[in-house]
Each structure stands twice: as C-alpha cells, then as structure tokens.
Amino acid sequence: MKVVGILGSPRKGGNTATLVDRVLAGAGAAGAETRLWVLNDLNIKGCQACLYCKTHDHRCQLQDDMTPVYDDLRAAGAVVIGSPIYMGDVTAQTMLFINRLYAFLNPPGSSAGNPVHIAKSALVFSFGRGTGDYRAVMAKIGEFLERAFGARLEGILGDGDNNDPNAVKGKPHLLEEAYALGRRLAE
User: Fold this and answer.
1) How far apart are CA 81 and CA 70, in angstroms?
2) CB-based burial of residue 117 (10 Å sphere; 0-12 exposed, 13-18 middle, 19+ buried)?
3) Half-sphere exposure for 176 (CA within 13 Å, toward CB)
4) pLDDT tens digits for 73-102?
5) 175 conformational bin, left if phi > 0, alpha if psi -120 to 50, beta if neither
6) Cα distance between residue 2 and residue 93, in whole Å
7) CA–CA dist 86, 170 (Å, integer)
C-alpha cells in the first residue's frame, strides 16, 4: 500500500511536520510505501474553474506542481493531511490543495463512480496558544475525503500550546499516537 503525506505547514521541521512524519514512519514500519509532499515547496495555482478536468479524464489543465501530487494520490491507498491551525482554520496551502482535488470529482449530475479511490485517511493538526479543540475544522476535511474518495477516516490527531516549533517533540504520548495512526493507515 502507498501512503501519501500532505504537509500544509510552511514551517519545515515544526510541530505539524513532526506529526505527519511520525504518521508516515508508523505506516512505513507496517510495510507501506510512503511519500511526503510539502505544499509550501510546491508551485500550485488555484483551481481556475475551467472544467477541463471534467472532459479530460480528470486531468487538470494547469501544468504546475500539483500534477505529480495527483499521480501519487491516484496510486495511494491512504493519505495523511497535516495542517497547523491559522486564524481558526487550516492554512492557505492546505485549502489550495483541497480545492485542487476538484479535478478528481465527477461532473455534477454524473452517476459514475469516482475514478479515484483512497481507502483511508488521517488528519493531524497543531496550533499555538491555548487549548481549544480544532477537530471540527479537520473533520470537515475528513468528511469531504470520505464523500469524494471513499476514504475512511482512521483518526484526527493534534493539540495546542505548540508555539515553540519543537513543542510536540516533548509530548511522547502524541508522538506515539501519531505512529500508531500511521500503522492503522497501512493495515
């Protein structure tokens, strides 16, 4: 099985990156092939609503760095998406990625099954100050992935008080949960 990681954080090596890395490590230890995409390193444009993908086998007309990400997602059995919470929501990078998944959806009114099937998903988040619970923010992404691709949500993992970029490294219970979540993705 292939597990694709999508990191929506602009901070390399930060808290969300650490959690996504631990999920992928768990998946790899369980025998999965893993791949990580760092969205902030990619040149991805916004969806142009041109509908080209609806008449061209779900291929996007934009020739940008999303093209190889699409290829990996077509081959994936599972996906983990990680985003820090900025201003009460996922990062702009993460939302741009989600919006570009439109290429994989069937045209309105189509009765055909979705051509892309991802069996499982996992979502991770972190945020700076406070102790709020942003699982609902991530849950809406999980619901979309399930409706669009059949991806059964294996878990949402994250917490707050992570202003220090290394904060989650001092939270062994969270790192263990992330690793276990990755193993579940690979099963």
Assistant:
1) 14
2) middle
3) 4
4) 999 999 999 999 998 899 999 999 999 999
5) alpha
6) 23
7) 22
Summarised one tens digit per residue, pLDDT across range 6-33 is 999 999 999 999 999 999 999 999 999 9
Gyration radius of the chain's alpha carbons: 16
Cα separation, 127 vs 158, in Å, equals 8
Give whole-number Cα distances, 72 to 7, 13, 116, 121, 172, in Å: 14, 23, 11, 14, 30
Q: Is residue 123 within 8 Å of 82, Cβ to Cβ? A: yes
Give the tokens for residue 166. Answer: 């290394």
C-alpha 126, offset from chain centre: 14
- Tokens (6 digits) for 153: 């949500």
| Helix/strand/coil (H/E/C) assignment for every residue in 117-129 | CCCEEEEEEECCC
Q: What domains are defined for the chain?
A: 2-186 (3.40.50.360)
Residue with tokens 């998946």: 27
C-alpha to C-alpha distance for 40 and 38, rounded to whole angstroms:
6
Is the pTM higher than 0.85? Answer: yes
